[in-house]
Write a structure and sequence with these properties.
By secondary structure, this protein is α+β, with helices and mostly antiparallel strands. The protein is 36% helix and 24% strand.
Amino acid sequence: MNLHEYQAKQLFRDYGIAVPDSRVAATTDEALAAAQVLGTSRWVIKAQVHAGGRGKGGGVKLLDTEQALRDYSDSLLGSHLITPQTDSHGQPVNRLLIESPCDIDRELYLGMLVDRARSRIVFMASTEGGMDIEEVARKQPEKILSVFIHPAVGLMPYQSRKLAFSLGLGAQAKALHQIMSGLYRLFSDKDLSLLEINPLVLSKQGELLALDAKINIDDTALYRHADLAALRDISQEDEKEARAAEHGLNYVSLEGNIGCMVNGAGLAMATMDLIKLRGGQPANFLDVGGGTTAEKVAEAFKIIISDPRVKGILVNIFGGIVRCDLIAEGIIQAVREVQLGIPVVVRLEGTNAEAGRTLLAQSGLAITAAESLDDAAQKIIAAARALPQGEAE
């Protein structure tokens, strides 16, 4: 789960990490009131969306008049911001962060994530703050500094001092240690999966400030953090993905036209790869999981066909934990509930596969059976291509 910048900065404040003074606004009037409360003659206005590259998309501005603030707020609120990290539809802007400007001397990068290969939390830092850190890592990997934290002892002062001197922050070594200590406690306490400050700035007054804040939370740990779960902004998520999550389904929207319903993440990836190999484009990743039911399968089916780009559906089930006859019942239930005008190809193997195939054959529905995964991929791609243009819609 992602947090907005204003939410992440509140957590920073709770853990003693310095951030610029700011207010959040949901309307233009609130934005003007926030500017007055800040008491500065200039303000940095930031669109609150779950996407990076906001500045490149026009979502970050430095303004110095109330009229400019009013006009900019009016243009942003209620709009969709398109950045290099969004699709062509962009992300809805429902809130703005009104922030006091900072006299920046230097911009740095500081981030944290879990290094699974080492089973460690790792701090990453760079002198190239304010830039695309992935691009820095690709072109100048020597600019990325790493500090690995042993879980038994936590962050040690010598580690933050070493990083401070490597970043040219010898005079701010103590301040950097305080920031890193707070970040480490925050990361551990809240079960975060990623934390980034880009940029972490050194002001001309010699103060270190988190000018930006990005936090990702481990979804599987949210049951321990009701306060964080309450911060979820559904408007920033794909509607179909959010709907799938409510039903315990793993769904990710893609840009193709072949819908996929598979049990098991590995099999789902293999199914998408084979569709691509045979010249098709998968429209989604959808794993119905092991402990599924006919009702859950029916819901998965409805989610897939809610995408108007889908022109065919491939159901690929290997019955192990889940029974193929249950999957067949779900398919039949969904097809009967929805007026379906697109082809469906089903491949069933494993537990009760024959019973499942019999149910589908006796349903009287236009469902094509496949002998193998390769056969299924070729059949659904051919059927989707044969569908008249616009019929899927």
